[in-house]
Amino acid sequence: MIDINAFVPLEFLSPALLELISLLVVFRLIYTPSTLSTRRFLFSYFAISASVFILSFLLHHLEFELSLAVGLFAIFGILRFRTDPIPIKEMSYLFTGITISVINALSFDFFVLHQVLIANVLLWILLAFMERVFYKTKESCLPLLYDRLDLLAPEKREDLLEDLRSRTGLDISKVKIKQFDLLKETAELVIYFLPRK
What is the pTM of this model? Predict the structure, then answer.
């Protein structure tokens, strides 16, 4: 007879299942419908959260020193991707995923399943409430490489918005200039718009 503990420890299954359900609720049911243009972060959210969960679980059960665990999480804290900076809301969701992962990996020694589940559900309710009440606009942002430097002057702001609306077909409400390159005659912009249903 095959012993399942030889392959997957039973004490790993409950927190892992709760972790999977919690991540699906947070990122697929709460985050995704509210941020249509930033679904590109979903892979990173799931990958980092799952990695933190497994790392926390293993560190805890292998009885590593607390200072080593804190040091490893400090690496996550100062880790910076070599792409554009993540917007604040997306960074908040990233830290929420990390928090959920740490709770689910480390709490089962101190609490029973239904208590850890209550902690997860409270986070879900808080996030859903914040999305529905305090973040009603559902405004999305998108980086854009722009080729008309003549419209970047402050007095031509309305002309710039009109040009961007006509070329992208989006209902752009505002635009931010990140930087421009006079040699290539291009500018990096971030446009903010309300997505169509």
Answer: 0.64
